[in-house]
Amino acid sequence: MSAGTAGHVARSTVRPNSETIRRTPLRTFLHTDDGVTIDSVYEPGVAVYDASRSPSGDPVFVVAHGFTGDVDKPHVRRVAEAFAQYGAVVTFSFRGHGASGGRSTVGDREVLDLAAAVAWAREQGHARVVTVGFSMGGSVVLRHAALYGSQAHADGRRREGRTEAHTDAVVSVSAPARWYYRGTAPMRKLHWLVTRPEGRLVGRYGLNTRIERRGWDPVPLSPVESVPRIAPTPLLIVHGDRDGYFPVDHPRMLAEAAADHAELWLEPGMGHAEHAATDDLLARIGRWGNSQDG
């Protein structure tokens, strides 16, 4: 895929709050660079409800959910509420999920969705953006940081529009290191869901997730290939030692690819992604993100 420029905000679709009210919760559809509408929510967080304060000093956490999640799912709202203690929060539904348009490409063109959300987060006045992704979203935040980050700029690959879409810190939770992994029963089930017509029907009508029937062409940059390109942007890799989808060789591969640049938190007893993230873990991630200067 081509990462393209950051998406544009479809201001006419803000609902239900008036966009003329500064630093209040907003809901809108964003338009990605390839024309997909992305259902998105901005919440100013506990610290910035005071309209007399500028939000520029507070970070904004942009949350990238896992496959079959969406902005209104309880586990996504719980994550947003936890991070709101440490800064503003943007949540959104990836393409093909919830009320967003398009079809899920399971981690490929979703980078454009995240880029649009990050650019919109900066429009709210925040100088620091922390991207936090879970499972599929974890792979997306890694690829996004590689394509829109500091090294892309140094290598001369950053195009016009990428400046506002870059992130200042990255947190990847329960992410795969490599594509096409089928080593666990949940991943074999997921591959059936994505690759088989009957699986995609289950996704559409049972999980409210519309899945693209065409395979990747070309195969996108993998998470482990992305990690070395993220530096010097701060990177935190979080993974449970009881993850039923991706065993611990995945986070270890990511950390090894990052060399000394990334922090790795292997969480004892933790399972997979948002559902397994405890309130304590979310608070620690929030504090880590809040402490990063970018």
Report on this model:
Residues 1-22 and 151-161 have low confidence and may be disordered. The chain has 294 residues and is of the alpha/beta class. It is globular. Helix 1 (74-83) links the parallel strand 4 (59-64) and strand 5 (88-92). Helices cover 32% and strands 17% of the residues. Strands 1-2-3-5-4-6-7-8-9 form a nine-stranded mixed β-sheet, sandwiched between helices. It has helices at 74-83, 110-123, 136-148, 150-154, 185-195, 197-206, 223-226, 249-258, 273-276, 279-291, and strands at residues 8-10, 26-31, 37-43, 59-64, 88-92, 128-134, 169-173, 235-240, 262-267. The two termini are 27 Å apart.
Question: Which properties best describe this structure?
Answer:
10 helices; single chain; globular; 9-stranded mixed beta sheet; disordered N terminus; 294 residues; alpha/beta
How are the SSEs placed, and which strands pair?
Layout lengths: L7 E3 L15 E6 L5 E7 L15 E6 L9 H10 L4 E5 L17 H14 L4 E7 L1 H13 L1 H5 L14 E5 L11 H11 L1 H10 L16 H4 L8 E6 L8 H10 L3 E6 L5 H4 L2 H13 L3
Parallel strand pairs: 4-5, 4-6, 6-7, 7-8, 8-9
Antiparallel strand pairs: 1-2, 2-3, 3-5
Helix pairs in contact: 2-3, 5-6
